[in-house]
Amino acid sequence: MSVLPIDDPRLTAIGLLSEVHAGLNGRMQPALVAAGLSDIDFETLIRLSRSPGERLRMTDLAAQTGLSTSGVTRVVDRLERDGLLARVACPTDRRASYATLTEAGRDRLATVLPHHLSDIDTCFTGLLAEEELEFFLGILRRIRDVVRPCATAGAAESRPQAESLSPVRP
Q: How many domains does the structure of the chain reveal?
């Protein structure tokens, strides 16, 4: 008779990670819903706001969010219709375009971030001492780099100035 390794600490680690992720998502939902944003809308806007020039190539945005090309196109289309971001043409590559945060997108983030950050502090980062948080962030980055190596695609590359980009015409 085979004995199952049910007490394996690897199962405990992934189980705890899943429970924490689900709990944090549940805690964050009300602030996002109140701001009229889905999880992926918020992730897209926050990734753009934290990128050089508040913009990313569509392919880099897809890689960072883990969405397919068509999936990121649907999200960008919706956020563009809502005026939260704009698509701009790449001046050096006609095949490429950028998703760029708009003033309305910055304003929407400004409405949700205070509550979102308060939630993060209350049930996550505020529970850790500064050294613990730094250590934990290092561990999370190490794991992220293995499971989602494209999560920072385009983040460190230099980008053309916004003035040199042209709006993409439908």
A: 1
